[in-house]
Amino acid sequence: MKKMHCFVAFIVVLILLASCAQPTAAPAPAEPTKASEPATEPAAPVANTPEPVLTEQEEWLKAAGLGDYTPDAQDWASIEAAAKLEGSVIVYSNSSRVASAAEAFAALYPEIAIEALDMGGADVITKVREEQNAGAFTGDVWLSAGGPDIEGDFMPAKFLWKFIPDDLADVIPSESQEPIVTTSTEIFGWVYNTELNDTCPIDNWWALTDPVWSGKIYIKDPMNSAEDLGMLISATTHADELAAAYKDYFGTDLALEEDTPDAGWLWLKKFAQNSPVGTPGGDETVEAVASLGMTDSYIGWLPLSKYRAVLKGEAVFAPCETLNPVVGVQKRNYVAVINQAPHPNAAKLFIKFILSAEGFAPWNQVGQYSSIPTIEPIADALPFKDLKVWNFENLYVYQNITAFRDFYALNLLSK
Hints:
This protein is of the alpha/beta class. The protein has two domains: 183 residues, D-Maltodextrin-Binding Protein, domain 2 (3-Layer(aba) Sandwich), CATH 3.40.190.10; 167 residues, 3-Layer(aba) Sandwich (D-Maltodextrin-Binding Protein, domain 2). α9 crosses α14. The protein is globular, with a radius of gyration of 38 Å.
């Protein structure tokens, strides 16, 4: 009996333990999936990226369609309409002939008032630099020389912007598209008085160092004309040719001096010591060398565009065409839109015009030649078109002009 009680008690305890245990929850049934609805991933959050803030210059470039914002194709109907709304254009030039070009442009576009300023090359450089540095954006078009400053300063500083009309992109030679568009090339060379000489009385650049020509060589003063000094500096870069010409002239090998590392420096030194006469400008050089009725013979350094005075019967000179190693130096004239020009569309329209045959007409003359191969030189210009010349070395001149000016001045004083 006692055993039976113990067994019943044991069963009761088991029942009580089972009733106190926590039941295990059954897993929730999975929701049925439809074969036609693939599982989707959570959407990525949308980034709130602000638009880049443009500088004042970038805003202008974007509106003007220049620099990085240049369109693939130019809509000339829209450009012309916008130019007429702008209503004016201001051109900075180094040439008096810009007045004739401005007159022709005004006839084509009477809705656009044009102010074409003949300022001289040095003044164009100074005005653009001062306006850009001051943030006083006034001018629209650069139409001038100034290659050393363009390559060495203005393009790196983004003072000028290249613009090429799309119909000329494949017409203008590649070398005339950098760093901005070349409008024309212009030849400077040594000339002589044709009334006193049947042919040039010198045949070699080293003759210009000969004492027989001391005080009888006229050149726009290189101490005051960066362009003319740049011509002489460009010549010095052709040291090998000058060394060969030295041997032809003197019959001996070149003998360098302590301060002359090559034939170019030596030629410039001896030239400066031979008392060249500096003039205020090309017209004064013409007068000194090539006036009618002179009795003494002189040599002059001139832009051959001055030959128009000969064609008019007002002067008597010709280039020394057989001079060893070359007649002279060829420089370039350029056109571009000035940075943050107030009238960029009118500037584009003027550039397109100035690169046309009609726009270039005032400069189509002897000694000056368009960069557009399809624009033929006038008949009077043809004889001088293929003269042997050196190129103006823009960047070299920019980087070295101070050293050469000091060297030239020192040797002028030591003559």
